[in-house]
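Module 6 notes. Inverse folding takes a fixed backbone as the condition and produces residue identities as the prediction. Think of it as a translation problem where the source language is geometry and the target language is the twenty amino acids. Below is one complete input and output pair. Work through it position by position during the lab.
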């Protein structure tokens, strides 16, 4: 029985607008999940996979128009346009509500309205938040059950008057009486897709898409765009970061959070198997970190999610064996290849496609010789976090885990060394503010252009990025310097002049993590440079690694001329934020420029 009157009223209002055939309150039980999956198999939306190879798992294929986040249809509807900032799509809240109310009118005809109470983070944790998603997609329900904690226990925690974020979603495909449904209902017209955030009201409205973060509203919409505003107002951090625990052969476990833009290996690092003997990495989360100060004055982090929504192509036993083991059962796959044995395959899985009949992500017969991708490049797997072989024992600790270091980084073939450490908290925020990845192929723009993505939050910050960076500066004033995490900039992607990787990556990234661990423990050797502290010669453990000494020299090189060109690029980047850019960051940039000029002249 639902005792929360505001929730009851909101569901009633949504039903009056969307006019579903019926309303169903999700209880989060295994029986409910199994029943919904069976119903989707019966309608042709889901394909059960081979129970001998992948028990409890299903394949879905989306509409070709609905395969990824639609950033140009993602809006921040703040009352003041300036609050959204130059990096977000802004729309007047009243205008957006009017447009979407028209689209929502009758949008759930012939469908069931599912009400999903969900908790971001362990139920009852002081760092967690509750949301309620209304949706007409059973695919969303089963994915939300994996990605969050849903159902009756959440309603119990919400009580009669608890705070929650209302999240309204519809695929935008009403059914007329007798009309047969499609295998992937959505709105194919891109102009009718809206992923809308009302930060002042703490509300999310999504229409037209059934895919990923457009529809699983606990993910980027709540966990980052709305939560970043909540965090700003309440004095905590909601970040696009993995969280891992690192334990040496003899020593104390420490926790690290890391922010990288897409395609920079966050999931691989979060589940890394170290090549260093005796070192152990355990995963708290691979995508999002919510952090609040504990009574000890340190930042404590939770992973607000309960599952992994990972990119499938490129995931293999070489790149991420723990992910491959995790998805052996009870997982949902979207837009991958279906083999004759009712198993899955994708490009970069580490082995050739099996013989026999194969169906690609569009539902058509497929052969590798066709030179078309069998799996969509943004094909996904959804898997419960508890199945991760290296899930950290404290991953659901309601108090969170204490963070000792932040890592930032991106894909940079030149200029940025393998690792360097910030001089101070403010200098570390400066490093986070200039992170970006360099384009290396013509089809994604001019070669060598750095696309800046501060703290990997550019697509996900729910307010002005200048205010966001000022919030990071303010966090540093809330405790003593010795209790703040140290901040490091890493770059696994440096290349030689002939385009070859200089660093092996994957499990050997543990060698860099070891130096970081030693630095935050007070034992790591470092040398001061104009850009920060770099490892002293021999400080990175290279035992057993067949790597030319010239590679190490190049990986740790700081070229003042290259960095002065970087300074000019940063000035252009900072220009976007105008007067809202914290003065502290302009001062850090000026100080960097002075140090580089001094180094060049000496």
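Target side of the pair, the amino acids:
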């Amino acid at each position: 029985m639902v005792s929360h009157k505001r929730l009851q009223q909101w569901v009633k209002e949504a039903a009056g607008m969307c006019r579903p055939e019926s309303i169903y309150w999700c209880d989060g039980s295994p029986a409910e999940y199994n029943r919904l999956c069976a119903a989707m198999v019966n309608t042709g939306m889901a394909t059960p996979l081979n129970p001998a190879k992948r028990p409890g798992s299903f394949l879905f294929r989306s509409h070709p128009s609905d395969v990824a986040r639609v950033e140009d249809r993602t809006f921040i509807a703040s009352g003041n346009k300036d609050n959204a900032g130059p990096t977000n799509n802004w729309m007047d809240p009243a205008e957006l509500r009017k447009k979407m109310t028209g689209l929502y009118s009758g949008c759930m005809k012939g469908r069931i309205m599912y009400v999903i109470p969900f908790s971001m983070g362990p139920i009852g944790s002081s760092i967690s938040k509750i949301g309620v998603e209304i949706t007409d997609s059973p695919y969303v329900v089963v994915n939300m059950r994996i990605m969050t904690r849903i159902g009756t226990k959440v309603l119990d925690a919400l009580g009669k008057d608890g705070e929650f974020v209302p999240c309204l979603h519809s695929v935008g495909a009403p059914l007329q009486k007798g009309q047969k449904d499609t295998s992937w209902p959505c709105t194919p017209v891109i102009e009718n897709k809206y992923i809308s955030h009302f930060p002042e009201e703490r509300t999310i409205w999504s229409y037209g898409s059934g895919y990923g973060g457009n529809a699983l509203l606990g993910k980027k919409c709540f966990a980052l765009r709305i939560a970043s505003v909540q965090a700003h107002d309440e004095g905590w951090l909601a970040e696009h970061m993995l969280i891992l625990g690192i334990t040496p052969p003899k020593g104390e476990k420490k926790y690290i959070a890391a922010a990288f833009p897409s395609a920079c290996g966050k999931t691989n690092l979060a589940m890394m198997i170290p090549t260093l003997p005796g070192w152990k990495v355990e995963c708290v989360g691979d995508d999002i970190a919510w952090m609040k100060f504990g009574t000890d004055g340190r930042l404590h982090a939770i992973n607000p999610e309960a599952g992994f929504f990972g990119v499938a192509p490129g995931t293999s036993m070489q790149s991420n064996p723990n992910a491959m083991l995790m998805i052996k059962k009870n997982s949902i796959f979207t837009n991958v290849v279906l083999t004759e044995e009712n198993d899955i395959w994708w490009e970069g899985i580490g082995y050739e496609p099996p013989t026999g009949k194969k169906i690609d992500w569009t539902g058509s017969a497929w052969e590798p010789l066709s030179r078309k991708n069998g799996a969509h490049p943004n094909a996904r797997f959804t898997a419960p976090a508890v199945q991760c072989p290296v899930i950290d024992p404290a991953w659901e600790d309601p108090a969170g885990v204490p963070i000792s270091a932040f890592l930032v980084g991106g894909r940079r073939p030149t200029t940025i060394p393998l690792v360097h450490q910030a001089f101070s908290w403010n200098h570390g925020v400066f490093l986070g503010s200039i992170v970006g990845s360099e384009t290396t192929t013509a089809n994604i723009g001019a070669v060598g252009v750095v696309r800046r993505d501060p703290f990997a939050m550019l697509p996900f910050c729910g307010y002005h990025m200048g205010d966001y960076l000022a919030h990071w500066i303010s966090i540093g004033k809330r405790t003593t310097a010795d209790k703040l995490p140290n901040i490091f900039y890493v770059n696994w992607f440096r290349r030689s002049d002939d385009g070859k990787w200089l660093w092996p990556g994957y499990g050997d990234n543990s060698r860099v993590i070891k130096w970081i661990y030693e630095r935050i423990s007070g034992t790591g050797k470092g040398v001061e440079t104009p850009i920060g502290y770099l490892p002293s010669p021999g400080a990175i453990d290279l035992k057993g690694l067949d790597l030319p000494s010239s590679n190490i020299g190049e990986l740790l090189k700081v070229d003042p001329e290259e960095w002065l060109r970087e300074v000019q690029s940063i000035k252009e980047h900072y220009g976007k934020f105008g007067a809202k850019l914290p003065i502290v960051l302009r001062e850090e940039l000026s100080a960097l420029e002075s140090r580089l000029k001094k180094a060049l002249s000496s």
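Reference fact for the lab report: Residues 583-601 form the longest helix (19 residues).
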